[in-house]
Structure formats: C-alpha cells, structure tokens
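Q: For a teaching handout, I want to show students what a protein-ligand complex looks like in token form. Below are the inputs, and the small molecule is adenosine-5'-diphosphate. Please produce the holo structure.
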Amino acid sequence: ILIVCTIVAVTLSALFVNIAMNTTFNKYMTDVQKQRNERIVQYFTDIYKKNGKWSSNSGDELIHEAYMSNYCLTLLDENKNMVWGMNPKDINNNSYTHTMMGEAGKGVYTTKTFNINLDGKTVGYVIVGQYYAVLLSEQDINFKNSINKGIAVSTILTVLIVTGISLVISKQFSRPIKEVSDISAQLSKGDLEVRSNIKSNIIEINSLIKSINMLGEKLKGQDLLRKRLISDISHEIRTPLNILQNNLEAMIDGILPVTIDRLNSLDEEVIRFGKLLNNLNSLKQFDTEEVKLNMVSVSLKELLSQVCEDFYTLAKEKNINIYFKAEENEFTILGDIDKLKQVFINLISNSIKFSKQNGNVWVNLKQRDDKVMIEIRDDGIGIKKEDLPYIFERLYRGDKSRQMISGNGIGLTIAKKILDLHLASIEVDSEENKGTIFTVCFP
Ligand code: ADP
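A: Here is the structure, written as tokens, with adenosine-5'-diphosphate included.
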C-alpha cells in the first residue's frame, strides 16, 4: 500500500512539476522572443532615422544573428516592396537547425509583420519568420532536460527509499502478528505452554503480545483448575462414600458392632455429603444467575457485631480471641442481609478454623475515602503464595487445609459472588504461618 501510494503521489507531482515548468519556460521564451522582435524593429527604425531611406544593405548586421538563431528577416519599404530578404529555405537547411528546435507548431513556417514607424509615419515593414513558435537553443534544451532528469531521479530515489522503509515497517508488523496468530492456533490445539518473547517498539503490538501471553497463562491456569476441580469433586464425594461403605460392610459382616454412636457418626458423614451437594447447588444458582437479592437497609456495625458474638463460644473452644472494632458510624448500606451475613460468617469461621490454639481474630469496620471497609484479620496458618490467586475458585482448598481441616472450598466462591452482586470487592493478603487478612470494600 505504501509503495503504491508513493508511486502514485510521486508520479503525479512529477507530472505537475513538469507541466508547470514547461508552461513557465515557454512563457519566458515567448517573452524573450517578443523582446527580440522589439529590438529588431527598433534597430531598423534607428537605421532609417540615420539614413533617411532604405538601401539593400540596411540591416546587414542582423542577417548573421538571424541566420545563427534560425529566424528569417525580410525588409519591405513603405509601399510594401521588398528591400531585401533572407530565404526561409536557408535557415531550414542550415547546420544549426538541429540544435535550434521548437516544440509548439513544429516545422510550420510562420511569419509576423511589424510596422517600422518614425514620427508617427510608417516608413517600412519588417517580416520575422520562423519554423517553430518558440525557438530553443541547445542550452535551453539542456536546461529543460536536466530539470526533467532531476525529477526522474528524485522519483526513482523516493520510490526506492519508500520501498526500503515499507519493507522494514511491514516486517516489524507482520513478524509479531504472525507469531501471535501462530500462538493462538497452538493454544487452540491445546498446547498451553507456548509464549512469545518478541519485543516490539510499537506499543499496540507489544500489548497484543502481552495479551496473548496473558491468555496463555489464563488458559493454563483454567486448565489446571479444571483438572483440580474434577479430582477435588471425586475426592470430596469418594471420602464420605468410602467411610460409609467400609463401616456398613464391617457392620454387615459383624466385624463392627452396630451402636448408636457409630450410626450417629455415619449419619454425620451423610449430612456432610448432603451439605456438599447443597453448596454445589447454591453455586449453580449463582452461576445461572437465579439468585435474587432482597435489598434492605443494613447496618454493617450491627450485623458484624452480631456475627462476632455468635462465634465467641466456638472461638473459646480453641481459646481464640475475637476483637471487633468499629469507627463511629452505623455504616448503613443497601444489601441483602441474609446473604451478607453468610459472607461474614464464612470469613470469620475461616479465620477461626485456620487459626491455631490461642490465636486472635480482628474484625475492623472503618471508612476509607468514599468506601466502607471491613478487615478480617487472623494470625493463623496463612495461605501459600501459589494458592492465593485461586482461593476464590470453586472447590479450591489450600494444601494445608486439605490435609488438616475440614471444608469443601466453596465458601469463598459463594462469598465473592454475593459481594459481586453488591458491587463490593474482596481482596486477600496472606503470609504463610503469619496470618491472613481479607478486605471487603462496599461503595
Ligand atoms: P473451605 O474453608 O471450606 O475449605 P473456602 O472457600 O472458605 O473453603 O476457603 C478456600 C480455601 O482458602 C481454604 O481451603 C483455605 O486453604 C483458604 N483460606 C480461606 N480463609 C483462610 C484463612 N483465614 N486462613 C488461611 N487459609 C484460608
């Protein structure tokens, strides 16, 4: 495109420059010729003034110049009788003809007659004839040719330079774009490891490369998550089923006596199993947007202090202290009170669940700029750096919690979905063995 545009632009401008130059040059030459004719008339006027009559050698001095410059002179007296005249054939055949050329009116002999006036009286006529409308000398033609050559050379040079530049530019575009398209093809085939390390100095291309690399990372993460999800679901379902099966078989075989305690513990497994299915079901409701919020005015201060109070007894079992601190304000927002309660129950119960004996949980309610901020902080087991990006994903459970603490990795997913519906954000910051802080922000 660049090359074609340049060729068109340069050719057009060369054409216009050429036309403009020719027109100006011909006008200049016509003016020169006009001055020459005036000079000839003046010359003959002076001769007549000096001699008072015409003679056969009047104007002899001009004949040589006329012959050399390829024009023909004829002198007539006042009665239009010829005093003397040059033969037009001579100038057509002379050796200068090939250097004296014209363009307009090529080769046609034309004449112009001028009156020779003295003191208001016509004393004679001079006829100037030439084969070309505009006569050009060799220098004139050389001058025109060198300008034309200049235009041609600059046209070719411009096209060559633009060709070079456009090749470099198109390489800069096409190479990364082709690479990105190759990478997306490979990603679509399932090769999620491919990345591009091309660096471009074009900002848009750079962000395109960054985006495709990010897409690769995301797809890889999602793929990992999907595999993990399937293994998690089967694990979650297999464990209670195994316990039930083993115990029931042992009871049927008479190895284990059927006691109320055993039946109760098996019942607990069935209840856990049922809870998992219920949680998965409520997740499905959020995913299919079946959930409707019942928006009322909610005092966050009241809600949080009530949830904390509900947890005091549970926390005491592990000798954990819960500290609730709120700034001077009711912090009333519009929200679904039950769903919000579910969020804070989940966050605070996690803090207790993932804290060791004698730990602490701090719940702070404060205002930051135009936002209401709730911080739930504990000094518990913390979350591994590599687990952090995934803890809001469904069924994701940190390695540690999987081994030691019960749960099914759905609580935070639901909490995040509820907060999303309230246009609120939730962030987590954690350090292993130091503690975790969840920050919820309401607009
Ligand atoms: P669950 O608690 O049932 O496992 P959640 O969705 O509530 O599921 O939490 C997901 C995971 O996030 C937990 O398994 C745990 O690894 C991590 N987690 C959540 N809260 C905390 C916390 N306060 N301290 C440490 N780890 C936490």
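A: Two things your students might notice: Residues 346, 350-351, 354, 378, 380-383, 391, 396-398, 401, 407-413, 436 surround adenosine-5'-diphosphate (CB under 6 Å). The first strand starts at residue 72 and ends at 77.
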